[in-house]
Amino acid sequence: MPRKPTINTRLQDRYLRQAIRLQRYVGGQQRQVVRFLDRDVFPSVLGRLQTRLESIRSRGFDRGPHTTKRYTQMLVDTREVLKDGLGKARKRLTGDLRDLAKVEAEASLKAMEAEAGPVGVTFRGIDMRTIQTVASQPVDGQPLAKWWRDIERGTMRRIEREIGVGLAQGETVDQMVTRVRTNAFPTTRRNAEALVRTAATHVSAQAREASFRENADTIKGVQWVSTLDLRTSDTCKALDGRVFPVGEGPRPPAHPNCRSTLVPVLKSWRELGIDLDEAPDGTRASMDGQVPANLSYGDWLDEQPADRQDAALGPSRARLFRAGRITVADLTTSSGRPLTLDELRES
Asked: In angstroms, rounded to a whole number, what is the distance separating the alpha carbons of residues 193 and 257?
């Protein structure tokens, strides 16, 4: 049954469409950080390791304190190369998040103005200082730099472990380098990808929240909307559809790799102090102040036109979805071409 055409249901549609675009943008950012690791960071680390290991091997591993000293220095040098590379990745992500905060704040204002502006409701945007604050806030209680330090330390622990195993088994330098590449770096890639998504979800939610606070006289609540599929956590399943006061309650990300989003719930005419039950003639939807229906993400997606389903799922899986051969719960990944920041802004 079609949903009642209220301002809030239309706002929900706009915010969920923006959430889909955000996920495509984040997918592109994840691929960029992995490419940077693979092309710049990991080769430098492996090159330093190989040079130092060959030097130690040429002098022999049985010279007691001298070998220990060279081995320790090798680890120090390797850590410095890794730290420098991850530091560059952190700076790039920090800049991207600053731009993302601005785009998401603008998108939030644009959505509210597009739906409620025509019926006489005005909204305020947030200033650049607030946007800068949003982009620099800790992610899940930790500064972004701390997350990258954790990735660095975890990577070094895995490198030391793999080198230790290689030495114990009498492997060649090439074998030990291959061991590090194969066993130590995949986890670093996954952790970096998770950090990119978690940080982007955090910045998006905080930018929206700042926009909601700026318009708290018009917004009576904030609804949590989760992407419900096989990857959805129990926490996000439980929070899906719940409404919290502006500035209160949990906010995404609820956990690493969280994909949940926020949707504003506007007040009705009566709640705004206007003696009207419905919007004026000629407007597209009533402003009744009701919370949008608690649809699952799959139910919402089922109502969307084919081009939006293609954007959310990828063309091949979207065709299967429309044919009833799969549901959102059957999906484990989303696909589709990633968006650039300019495309995210223009959507």
From this structure: 8
Q: Label residue 39 by pLDDT band (50, 70, 90).
A: very high
The Cα–Cα gap between 26 and 33 comes to: 11
pLDDT tens per residue, range 216-258: 999 989 998 887 666 778 788 888 888 899 989 999 998 888 8
Q: Which two tokens stand for residue 54?
A: 């060959």
* Of the candidates 191, 20, 189, 202, the residue with the CA atom closest to the CA atom of residue 94: 202
Domain locations along the chain: 7-346
Category of 216 on φ-ψ map: left (φ > 0), alpha (ψ -120 to 50) or beta: alpha
pTM for the model stands at 0.81
Distance from C-alpha of 69 to C-alpha of 77, rounded to nearest angstrom: 12
Rama region for 336: left / alpha / beta (φ>0; ψ in -120 to 50; rest): left
Cα 268 from chain centroid (whole Å): 32
Taking the chain, what is the end-to-end CA distance rounded to the nearest angstrom?
Answer: 28
Q: What is the dihedral of CA 233, 247, 221, 276, to 10 degrees?
A: -170
Residue-wise burial string across 305-314, b where 16 or more C-beta atoms lie within 10 A, e elsewhere: eeebbbbbbb
* DSSP 8-state assignment for residue 283: -
Pair of tokens at residue 249: 């309650």
Cβ atoms of residues 78 and 156 within 8 Å: yes
CA 262 to chain centre: 13
